Structure formats: C-alpha cells, structure tokens
Amino acid sequence: MIESVGRLGGPRAIAAPAVAYLTPLAGALVALAAGVETRTVVVAVAASAIVCALVRAGVEHARIETARDRADRWIACRIGQPPSDAVLLARIEELMSPSLRADLARSFRRIAADAATCGRALTPAQHNRRVLREHIDQLRRMADRLADPAQPVTPRGVALVHGLVTAGGGPLYNPRRAEELPARLAAALAALDLESVGSAPSVDRGERAA
Predict the structure, then answer these.
(1) CB of 141 within 8 A of CB of 189?
(2) 203: part of which helix (H) or strand (E)?
(3) What are the start-end ranges of the H helices in 20-135?
(4) pLDDT tens column, 66-97
(5) Percent of all residues in the chain with a pLDDT value above 90, rounded to a whole number
(6) How far apart are CA 78 and CA 81, in angstroms?
(7) Which DSSP category does 26 fall into?
(8) Predicted confidence (pLDDT) at residue 29 exceeds the cutoff of 60
(9) Widest pairwise Cα distance in the chain
(10) Cα–Cα distance between 27 and 33 in angstroms, integer?
(11) DSSP letter assigned to residue 74
C-alpha cells in the first residue's frame, strides 16, 4: 500500500515561499502607523515586496511543473534521471486523483467537439481539426474511459494521456506530427489498463545506480 505523501504543488505550496517576501510590507505599515515613515515610502516598499513575492511564486510554480514533467517522463517511459521517491509517489498520487481524470476527460471531449466544428479556427485543436476528425471516436472513447470511476487506471496511462493533452507542439495540435496521433492515442488508451491499479513504477535502488 502506498502511503499518501500529498501533492507536489497547489496554491498553498506555490504561495508559502512567497509570503516571506511580504515581511517588509508589514514593517512599513507599522512604521506608517507610528508616523516614522511617509506614505510614499510605504507605497514603494509595498510595490517592491509584492513584485518580489509574485516573482518568487512564479519561480516556485515553474519548479513544481518541472518536477511534475520529470516525474511524468520517468513514470511513462523511464526517460531521464529518476526523481526522488517522495516526488515520484507524490506525482503518482496526483495522477491517480479523480479530479485530474475528470479534467483530462473534459479536455478530450472539448478536443473532439473542436474537431467536429467548421468555420474559423479559434483553438489549437481546431487548427488541427482536419487530422483530428478521423479520430473523433477514439477521442470520445478516451474521454469516456477517463470519466468512468468504475474503470481503474494506471499511473503510467494517465501520465501518457496528460502528456498528450498538454504538449502544445504534439500531434493533437501540430498537423506536421499527424502521423503520430493514431499510435499515441492507442498507446495511451492501452496503457491505462496495463498495470494493476495503484502500482508504482519501479524505484529499485540498483536500477537507479545503473
């Protein structure tokens, strides 16, 4: 049984490191109330503190997304340096969450709907709809598979599905990579069933050392 280790990210995880940058703002407000500093100084301190906090939050967000991408590559294809066990298990917990499954299902339904449209292309999938129209049934089948809580999924399968949806230059959105789409969709759909539910990718120390 995999013990819950929490999520890799989220609003709290992103905001927590940024809070320290707001400390000067509290001090400036106290100084203003005591009549030690002017309002102009407090505004300047506040602006600086808020900008620093926003930058730090942005850096933390990027760090977390990089950790997710690295974990996904390892879970899906054993590509790159393996992440730590804590990061790996946290990402598996995220991948297995019902909320992510629901989000991915909505994405596939939206892509299938975009592929069936006509007229001016407004979304990335609509720019690729000539290719996607041939695979609307497969896209809908993927959405149904993900949305059905009675059908278990695997971490590897969800990682492949997530990578397919989020890769802006991938075959779902790039007509020049259209030939990859049937195999990528089939592989992602099949991978959802390949392993027992809740199983984690190997984190064997000997494998890491190799």
Answers:
(1) yes
(2) none
(3) 23-33, 39-77, 85-95, 98-115, 124-127, 129-132
(4) 889 999 999 998 888 889 998 999 999 999 99
(5) 44
(6) 8
(7) H
(8) yes
(9) 71
(10) 10
(11) H
Q: 10 Å Cβ neighbour count for 99?
A: 8
CB-based contacts of 50-57 (< 8 A; 24+ apart in sequence): 50/22, 50/25, 52/21, 53/18, 53/19, 53/21, 53/22, 54/18, 56/17, 56/18, 56/21, 57/14, 57/15, 57/17, 57/18
The DSSP element (H or E) to which 132 belongs, if any, is helix 129-132
Residue count of the chain, please give it. 210
What's the whole-model pTM score?
0.74
CA dist., res. 168 & res. 190, Å (int) = 22
Query: What is the tens place of the pLDDT at every residue in 112-126?
Result: 999 998 888 888 888
CB 154, CB 200: distance < 8 Å: no
- Residue 180: pLDDT band with limits 50, 70, 90: very high
Amino acid identity at 59? V
**Distance in angstroms (rounded) separating the CA atoms of residues 125 and 61:** 26
Q: How far is CA 167 from its chain centroid?
A: 11
- In the structure encoding, which two tokens stand for residue 166, read together? 């989020």
With bands split at pLDDT 50, 70 and 90, how would you rate the model's confidence at 15? confident
The token pair at 133 is: 């129209």
For residues 170 and 127, what is the distance between their CA atoms, to the nearest angstrom?
A: 13
Tens digit of pLDDT for each residue in 147-158?
999 999 999 999
Cα dihedral 94, 98, 104, 106 in deg (nearest 10): -150
Q: Which residue has 């709290």 as its token pair?
A: 12
For residue 22, give both structure tokens.
């707001």
Map out the domains of the chain as residue ranges: 11-90, 96-191
